[in-house]
Prior knowledge:
Blueprint: H1 4-19, H2 26-40, H3 43-49, H4 56-66, H5 73-84, H6 91-106, E1 108-115, H7 121-135, E2 138-145, E3 153-157, E4 160-163, H8 166-178
Parallel strand pairs: 1-2
Antiparallel strand pairs: 1-3, 3-4
Helix pairs in contact: 1-5, 1-6, 2-6, 4-5
Amino acid sequence: MAELSTIARPYAEALFDSVRNDAHGLEYWSGVMSLLAQVSGMPDVLEAMADPRLSDAQRTTLLTGLVPQELPVQAVNLVALVVENGRVQALPQVAEQFELLRNKLEGTALARITSAYPLNDAQVAGLLQGLERKFGLKLKSEVTVDPELIGGVRVAVGDHVLDTSVQARLAGLRDTLAA
C-alpha cells in the first residue's frame, strides 16, 4: 500500500484549492481538518468504517456525525470521497498536508519543540526568535515535554531536526566509542 502521506496529498490539495478563498478563512478550515483528523484517527471509528454491513452513505453520516460541529459542504464531500475510496485512515495525513499547504501560502512553518523540562512562554519566544532567523520563516510552535531527553531540546521544522538534547549527545558519544 502506498504511503499515507502520498495518498493524502491529492485530497489535501483539492480541498485547499476549493477553500483557499473561502469566507471562513484558512484558520477555520485548519480547525475543521483537525477535528476530522481526531475523529477519524480513533480506533473505534476506524473499526466502524471497516464494517461491511454499512453502506458508504451510512459511513459518511456516521463519521460526520461524530464531529462536534456542523461541517461545511466541502468537508462533508471530502469525507464522502475518502469513505467511497476506502481511505478514511488517511484523514489525519490529509489534515497534516492541508496545514503544510496553508503554512506554505502564509510563509510560515510549524516548529515541533520537544524539551526535557517544561518551557515558559519567554523561553519558547526566545527559541522561536532564533529559529525564525535561522530558517527565514515565521514559526508556530508546538511544545511537548519528554523527560527521556535528560536535558536540552529537540526541534523539528519540516524536514530539518536540530537536536541539542543530552540524549542525542550521549548517543553520539556511544557511536564514537563503538567505532
